[in-house]
Amino acid sequence: MLNRRNFLKNLSLAGPLAAMPSALLQAQPEIRSGNIDLTVITLKGKVQSQGKGIAGVAVTDGINITQTDKNGQYTLQSNATASFVYISVPAGYAIPAEKHIAAFYRPLLKNSAVQRHDFSLEKLVTDDRQHNFVVWADTQIISKQDAEQLKTQSVPDLQALVKSYPAGTLFHGIGCGDLVWDHFELFEDYKQAIDMCGIPFYNVIGNHDMDVDARTDDYSAQTYKQQFGPTYYSYNRGEIHYIVLDDVFFIGTAKKYIGYLTENQLQWLEQDLALVKPGSTVVVSLHIPTNTGAARRERKAEELSGVVSNRKQLYKLLAPFKTHIMSGHTHFNDNWEEGNIMEHNHGTVCGAWWTGPICGDGTPGGYGVYEVNGSDIKWYYKSTGLAKDVQIRTYAKGKAKDAPEEIAANVWNWDSKWKVEWYEDGILKGAMEQRVAYDPLAQELYTGPQLPKKHTWVEPYLTDHMFFAKPSADARNITIKATDRFGNEYESRVI
């Protein structure tokens, strides 16, 4: 039985982080006792492009961060508790990748006190201040059949999306966790799917990507690291600074976890953000959402597994920046915004765990698409197999069980700056009423102990992106128009 995920509400953002001298942010490796090997390791190397060193590139072992000198050389004191040395790929350079999986790291050698690790980057010929990225949340494959659906449905959809943009448009992807569903042999299928997409992908660890037989959280990412490298890191493209974090904290018993950011990550993040100009746009990707409005859905158990419990500390660090947070995990679509932070909690690539075409809140299986122009970001949700302008689903009177006299619309990527209006026989009747409700199609597909057949525990979710209106008894034609925060209009006629 899948554990239901539930959430906290009414938690406010913390205030701005006081300015800190960069010297204070150079944290030292934690000194531990016992049998842990604290042998000092000296890391050296060069970051270059066509033999010429690149200055100012951030290099880290996941504990401390240094920058390359004017010749592209770096030296970093590390210790045997570190697993990798890796770079924050600078703007203006292509994302290094192997079969389209981002390859920005080098595993550290065992029993080598002085190590050299060089990085070669390719200079872009395209201005990367304009670029796009997609967020694939919860591909979550548990079988070869699921993997086949990923390859034959999701991959062609993304390929077609990329081709729909002008030639040369820069794209990259973010796999936002739960890449597989505890079956690590399927990481290879996931990688094959990414390679087929044809754009570089960075990845995030999810709760279903962890070693659940690990002794502690410290060792729960061993398999993931072998496949994809570090679980927290950063990179740059154009004017945007991207950060990936690991917010799934394994608590030592099979498949139990909480949303939590470790001190190791937060002290590393302090150093990383000290190199970013205040006021910049920052994109943070993690699996478990930092917060959602999901408490509205009246699901009251396992709250700590549904949001990041120490999120306010993250918000303090992000206070000087304009921040977009990308998350998955919930299997529904939810956007919230407060102050300088907006979180996009994505519907899933897998729909209802590859057993139905929509998530429990009615969001079609699909992914987020983000268009970057300088420091500005626009976005939309791309439903797999549907045109990009399909952004709402409408229901005629009688379809919504709890509102049989009303028409209804599901506007799955809604946020507070959308407008949802309705017309009766060509006359504007005004805004539709937003209510917390079930999506009628989700109820039809997933309600009852026998539905859906593949995973009978799938159920509809309450959502706040449902809208209602009561038409006249003699109404002949009804149209619903949704306008997003960017002025794009989407219309649907109610049949």
Give a structural overview.
- The chain is α+β, with helices and mostly antiparallel strands.
- 13% of the residues lie in helices and 31% in strands.
- The protein contains six helices and 32 strands.
- A hairpin with a 2-residue loop joins strand 27 (419-424) and strand 28 (427-431).
- It is globular.
- The chain starts with 39 loop residues before the first strand and ends with a strand.
- Mean pLDDT is 92; it is low at 1-33.
Task: Write a compact overview of the structure shown.
With 495 residues, the protein is α+β, with helices and mostly antiparallel strands.
Detail the topology: elements first, then pairings.
Blueprint: E1 40-49, E2 52-53, E3 58-60, E4 65-67, E5 73-79, E6 84-87, E7 97-98, E8 101-102, E9 105-107, E10 114-116, E11 119-120, E12 130-136, H1 144-163, E13 171-175, H2 187-197, E14 201-203, H3 222-228, E15 233-237, E16 240-244, E17 248-250, E18 257-259, H4 263-273, E19 281-285, H5 311-318, E20 322-327, E21 334-338, E22 341-345, E23 366-373, E24 376-383, E25 393-395, E26 407-410, E27 419-424, E28 427-431, E29 433-437, H6 440-446, E30 463-469, E31 478-483, E32 489-494
Parallel strand pairs: 1-10, 1-11, 12-13, 13-14, 16-19, 19-20, 20-22
Antiparallel strand pairs: 1-2, 1-5, 3-4, 3-6, 6-9, 7-8, 12-23, 15-16, 17-18, 21-22, 23-24, 25-26, 26-30, 27-28, 27-31, 29-30, 31-32
Helix pairs in contact: 1-2, 4-5
